Amino acid sequence: MNKKLQKLIMLLIAFTVIQARAQQVTVTSTAGSGSGSTGGYSSLAGAFTDINSGVYQGAIDIRINDNFSMTASAVLEASGTGSA
């Protein structure tokens, strides 16, 4: 393998790792405008805000992918509250 190809592969791997670390929280659901796609968030509060506003509905899967510090409260409303 030549040097340029090796550098390109290393760059792509580094970019993938950086992107994955930027999304510490991922959310998927079976209904709502976010259904069928995975939303990436840097905080739990951001994910909960979209869940509470109805972006994700039905069966919701929240995954914590990495360690992070919470700087704001994260409030998940009960089903049927607001747009949820």
Structure, described:
- It is a single chain.
- This protein is an alpha+beta fold and 84 residues long.
- The chain contains two helices and three strands.
- It has helices at 3-22, 44-52; strands spanning 25-31, 39-41, 57-64.
- Strands 2-1-3 form a three-stranded antiparallel beta sheet.
- Strand 1 (25-31) and strand 2 form a beta hairpin.
- The longest helix has 20 residues, at 3-22.
- It is elongated, with a radius of gyration of 17 Å.
- The termini are far apart.
- The model has no long low-confidence stretch (mean pLDDT 80).
What is this structure's SSE topology?
Blueprint (H helix, E strand, L loop, with lengths): L2 H20 L2 E7 L7 E3 L2 H9 L4 E8 L20
Antiparallel strand pairs: 1-2, 1-3
Features:
alpha+beta; 3 strands; elongated
Summarize the structure.
The mean pLDDT is 80. It contains two helices and three strands, in the order αββαβ. By secondary structure, the chain is of the alpha+beta class.
Order of helices and strands: HEEHE
Compute the separation of the termini in Å. 53 Å
Low-confidence stretches: none
Rg, Cα atoms, Å: 17 Å
Whole-number average pLDDT? 80
| Shape category | elongated
Within the largest sheet, what's the order of strands?
2-1-3
Largest sheet: 3 strands, antiparallel
Query: In percent, how much strand structure appears in the residues?
Result: 15-25%
Oligomer: single chain
* Overall SS class: alpha+beta
Count the strands? 3
Given the structure, what is the number of helices?
2
In percent, how helical is the residue content? 25-40%
